[in-house]
Amino acid sequence: MRIWVDADAAPRVIKEILYRAAERTGIELVLVANQPLQTPPSRHIRSVQVAAGFDVADNYIVQQVAPGDLVVTADIPLAAEVLEKGAAALNPRGERYTEDNIRQRLNMRDFMDTLRASGVHTGGPAAFSQQDRQAFANQLDRYLARHR
């Protein structure tokens, strides 16, 4: 099992939680981004820098992910693709993407894109909170306890 991180947009605090989890469990953590990343020295943590471009990091993760892996991403289309490959997906706010909820999330994402394209101001996501951080840490711990 590996943990893959769509690292370009992952909050720093989430990366720090993942660093500690990788050290504690010995599970390989791979951060994928189109810019250089600083990671703590560890045999369990590595980063991969991909070329700049639309969905290049996402495509790399989809190509590399295996059944049983966990992908941390806020990107709903990426989550849908990794679910199709038998991997699990968790967003940085601690919400699991599942076969039961991914279609609804994709539909809502597409609807919001359509609204924005027509000039409707939809606002952005709420600021990342302490509750989000705690929800992520709890969900990660539950996942790791079940899948190690």
Number of strands: 6
Share of helix among residues? 40-55%
Strand order of the largest sheet: 3-2-1-4-5-6
Low-confidence stretches: none
Main beta sheet: strand number and arrangement? 6 strands, mixed
Beta-strand content bin: 15-25%
Order of helices and strands: EHEEHEHEEHH
Distance between the termini: 8 Å
Mean pLDDT: 90
**Principal-axis shape:** globular
Content-based structural category: alpha/beta
Number of helices: 5
Cα-based radius of gyration, to the nearest Å: 15 Å
Give a brief outline of the structure.
The protein is α/β, with parallel strands linked by helices and 148 residues long. The protein is built from five helices and six strands; from the N terminus they run E-H-E-E-H-E-H-E-E-H-H.
